[in-house]
Amino acid sequence: MSRRRFPVFVLSLSAVVAVLSSCVGDPPARPGTSLGASSEASRVMAERSEMESLIALGSPSSLEKAVELAEKSTGLPAGDALAYGWISYEMARLVYPELAGTLPPSSISPPDSPLVRAFIDARNGKPGSPGGDAGPLLELFPALSIFRLKTAAAAGTTLAAMERFGRFGLPSAAGDVARGIALERSGDMSGALSAYTRAESAAADCYPATLGRARMLVETGQGDAALSVLKGLSSPIAGSAAYRRIEAQALYAAGRWDEAMPLVTAVLLDDPLDSRFALMRAHLLIERGEFKQAASLLDAYASINPTDRLYILLRARSAMESTKDRAAAAAALRTGLARYPDDAEMVLYAAEVFWKGDAGEKAEAVAFANKALAADPTSTRALRILLAAELASGTYVSAAARADSILAIGGDFDDYESLYKAYRGAGRMDDAAVLARTWRTREPSSEQAAIAWATALVEGSAKEAAGKLIAELLKGPGSSAYRSSLFWLQSRLQAGDDAALSSLRSALVENGMNVDALAAMSDIYVRKADYQRARFYLKQALAIAPERPDIVERREVLVQLGVAIP
Fold it and tell me: Which of 12, 260, 375, 439 could be 251's S-S partner, Cβ–Cβ 3.0 to 4.6 Å?
C-alpha cells in the first residue's frame, strides 16, 4: 500500500470494525458448496496464517490488507475476524501516528481474545511473558511497548521479544522498527541503523524505518546521506513534525546552516523546551555572529548540561569572539579539555586561543597544534599555529618547510604573508617571489602584498619593472607605513647615494619609525665617512629594533670605526 492511501485505510478500518462488531454471535452463512471438514480446517488455517503474517509485518499496506481479508473472510470465526481487525486498527494508531493523525480509538470494546489482551498489555506497558508454545503475534506484541514507553526496561523487553519472535522466520517491519528504537535508546547506533534498514527492506512504506535510518545517519555525522534518505518520503510524512525535526538535524549535520535555521526555529516553536535544538540554534546564531541572541539560549542550557562539548565550545567562542574575554575562553576550554582531551575541535580551538596568550600559553598552543596535526596531517588550522610559532622564533628553515607542507595540501590557507616571510627568511628568494606574485594576484588591494611583490622585483633581475611599479603605486593612496616602504624600495633602485638619500628622506617623512630606511641612511653616511650622522640614524634604529641582528651588526661596525653608541 502506498503512503498516500493510508488515510483511506484509516477510514476503511473504522468501517470494517463497525461491520465486524455487528457480526459477533452466530457465524455468518457461508456461500458456495459444502466442503469436507479437513478442507475447511485447512482453509481456516491458511486464512489465519496469512492474517497473522500481515499483522506481523506491520506495515501500513499489510495492516490494510489484513483488515480487507478479515472483512471478506468466509472461514474465520467472526470473533477472530473482529479481533484481527481491531488489532490492525489499533496497531496502526500505535506505530504510525503521523498517518493516523487524530484517529480516535476504536468505537467498540476490545474483542475478548488472548491476542487482543496481549496487545493491550504491551501497549499499556505491561507486556507478558508468552509460553514456549506461543504464536508469532504473542511474541511480537511485547516488543511494541517501546512505542509508548521510554524506559530502559521497555528497551530490554523489546529486544528480548524480538529475539523470541525471530524463531518464526517471519519478516516484521514494525518489529524491526521497535528493535531499532530500543537499540538507539541504548546507544547502539550501528545496531539501530541495521534494524531500521531491515525494516525498510521488509516494507518500503514503513516510514518510521526511513526516518530512523536518516536519524542514525545524522547521529554518525552523515547529514548529506540522511537528506538523500529523506527524499524518499512524500506527503503527508514529508510535512510532519517528525520529518521536519530530522530534516533540520540533517541540514545542520551537513553544514547547510542557512537552510537548517528556519527548521530548527520551527521545532523550537513546537517545543521551546527541546534543549538539543536550543543548543543547535545557539550554534547557528554564533556562526552568524549574533552572539547576543545566542547568549540567552546558552544561559538556559547551562542548567541542563554544562559539560556538553558543544556547549563548552560555544561558550569559549562567545567569550573570545563577542566579549573579547580571552581569559574566560581559555578557562572554558581548559574545562572542556579535561573532559574531552582528544576532541579534535576542542584541541584546535584551544591552540588558537592559547596562541594569543603569554609565553606559557603559546607553548601549550604549539603542543595542542602538534596533537591536532598528528590526528589530521591536513589541518591547515594547526599548520597555521605551527608556522606562526616558527616565524616568531626565527627558525626560518623549519618555517619554509612548513610552508611547503601547507602549499602541498592546498585548501583554503590564505595567510600569504606568513608563507612569504617563511621563504624570504629562509633565503629561498625564488619561492618568495612566486608567493609574492600569487599573493598580489589574490589580494590586489593588499598593501603588504604590493610591498612583497615590489620587493621581489627589486631583488630580482627586473629593476626597470620594479621602478615602474613603485612609481605607479606611489601615485595612488595608501597608509604612511606603506608609502614609506615604497620610498625605501625606490632608494634601492637609485643610481647614486644622493638620489637614494632623497628617497630615504621621503620614506622617513612618511614614517619616522621605518627601521629599514633608518639603517639605509646610516649605511650611506658610513660610506660618506660622516660617522656622526651615521650614528644619529643608527641610534634611532637601535631604539626601535634593539635585537635585530643586522642592526646590531651595524652598531659593531661603527664601534670599530671609533663611534660609540650608548
Answer: 260
Residues 109/26, Cβ–Cβ less than 8 Å: no
Query: What 3-state class would DSSP assign to 244?
Result: helix
In degrees, rounded to 5, the angle at the alpha carbon of residue 343 between the alpha carbons of residues 341 and 344 is 125
330, three cell numbers: 581559555
pLDDT of residue 373: 96
Q: What residues have CB less than 8 Å from 393, skipping those under 6 apart? A: none
What pLDDT does 70 receive?
86
Region of 411 please: left (phi>0), alpha (psi -120 to 50) or beta.
left
C-alpha cell at 158: 523489546
pLDDT of 6 above 50: no
DSSP code of residue 352: H
Average pLDDT over residues 447-455: 96
**Banded pLDDT at 350 (limits 50, 70, 90):** very high
Which residue do the cell numbers 517528525 mark?
242
Per the prediction, the chain carries an average pLDDT of 90
Residue 289's φ and ψ, nearest 5 degrees, are 80, 15
477-504 pLDDT, tens digit per residue, is: 999 999 999 999 999 999 999 999 999 9
Q: Are 439 and 420 spatial neighbours (Cβ–Cβ below 8 Å)? A: yes
418, 431 contact by CB (below 8 A): no
Give the C-alpha separation, 401 to 422, whole Å. Answer: 8
3-class secondary-structure state, position 234: coil
Let me know how long the chain is: 566
Q: Do the beta carbons of residue 12 and residue 66 sit within 8 Å?
A: no
Instruction: Kindly tell me if the per-residue pLDDT of 12 is higher than 60.
Output: no
476 phi/psi in degrees, rounded to 5: -95, 180
39 — phi, psi (to 5°)? -65, -40
Q: Where are the domains of the chain?
A: 342-443, 447-506, 513-566
* 515 compared with 5, residue with greater pLDDT: 515
Rounded Cα distance, 104 and 93, in Å: 8
Nearest to 502 by CA among 511, 517, 491, 512: 491
Residue with cell 661596525: 557
How would DSSP label each residue in 373-395? HHH-TT-HHHHHHHHHHHHHHT-
- The set of cell numbers assigned to 185 is 535508546
Q: What is the grid cell recorded at 43?
A: 482453509
Task: Tally Cβ neighbours within 10 Å of residue 481.
Answer: 15
Alpha helices, DSSP H, located in 36-149 = 37-57, 60-72, 78-95, 97-100, 114-123, 136-140
Q: Write down the pLDDT at residue 477.
A: 92
Q: State the SS3 of 129-176.
A: CCCCCCCHHHHHHHHHHHHCCCCHHHHHHHHHHHHHHHHHCCCCHHHH
| Beta carbons of 169 and 204 less than 8 angstroms apart | no
Q: In degrees rounded to 5, what are phi and psi of residue 355?
A: -65, -25
Q: What is the largest CA-CA distance in the chain?
A: 135
Q: Of 553, 551, 525, whose CA–CA distance to 540 is shortest? A: 551
pLDDT band at 102 (very low <50, low <70, confident <90, very high): low
